[in-house]
Amino acid sequence: AIVHFTNSILLDEFDLAVPQVVELELCRENDCKVFVSAPKSSFSTLDNIHIGDRFTKLKIPHIFPVCRNKYHKAFGRIQKGLEISNANDNYACGPVAVYIVSEQADFYDNALCYEPNSPSTSVKWTGSIPLTVLSAQPFRIAGDVRSGALQGSAFTTGFDNVRENSSKCPSVSDFRSTESFSYYFNGPIATLYSESEAEVELAIGSFQDFSLETPRFVSSPGYIGCQNGETYRSSLYPKKSTFHLIHKK
Asked: Which branch of life, at top level (predicted)?
């Protein structure tokens, strides 16, 4: 099912692999931004999935990034609402993460949004502006603090939920760092936000395995963690997750 937040929603491939039009009430009374991330294997099905109003349809791949900072499509208030429709045979849809944010959201105008690459995407970040990563596959965010100190939190949700709201999305890790750090996310979306400013060099990439040699959090695939308990689904996730923990004295 669609993951609902106070001022945004997150859709997966199963939400889009349906015969009926998906109506987005979130964007009926507000401007909205749409962010999309998908592996290349999904492009052929996404070519036939459209988003827009009843008169203007945009292929979802047209929202894909063309540079390191994730491009988005902004839609104005649409009286009849924003819609997503699937024109594929049998309503096929490959793995995808679609993050739609209302203008009522915190940081709507200035938050950063990226997707992981292989090799990793290099990003300069100051900490005071939320940085969100969107991906249909697990990913890693590693950072080196060049100057100053970070004091903030990592969330498994979008930038609109880093401040307390009715979604009640707690942080998964709080950090205080003047050196280096890394986080591994087994879900579609994550956000870093710091209450202090610093100059940070980030590397955002994919991963298969990770180490627990330094403090980490571990989650089930698609974990979001907000009060409503909704989760994200992907056919790229294994049906069973195995965690092998080794402790060395």
From this structure: Eukaryota
Q: Quick one: 116 and 144 in the same domain?
A: yes
Contacts of range 24-29, beta carbons closer than 8 Å, 24 or more positions apart: 24/81, 24/82, 24/83, 24/84, 24/100, 25/81, 26/82, 26/100, 26/102, 27/75, 27/77, 27/78, 27/81, 27/82, 27/100, 27/102, 28/77, 28/78, 28/79, 28/80, 28/81, 28/82, 29/77
Q: Say if residue 86 is in the same domain as residue 34.
A: yes
| pTM for the predicted model, two decimal places | 0.89
Range of the domain at 202: 112-206
What would the two tokens of residue 148 be?
Answer: 């100053």
Quick one: 117 and 200 in the same domain?
Answer: yes
Which of 49, 82, 102 is a domain's end point?
102
Rounded CA-CA distance 247/35 in Å is: 40
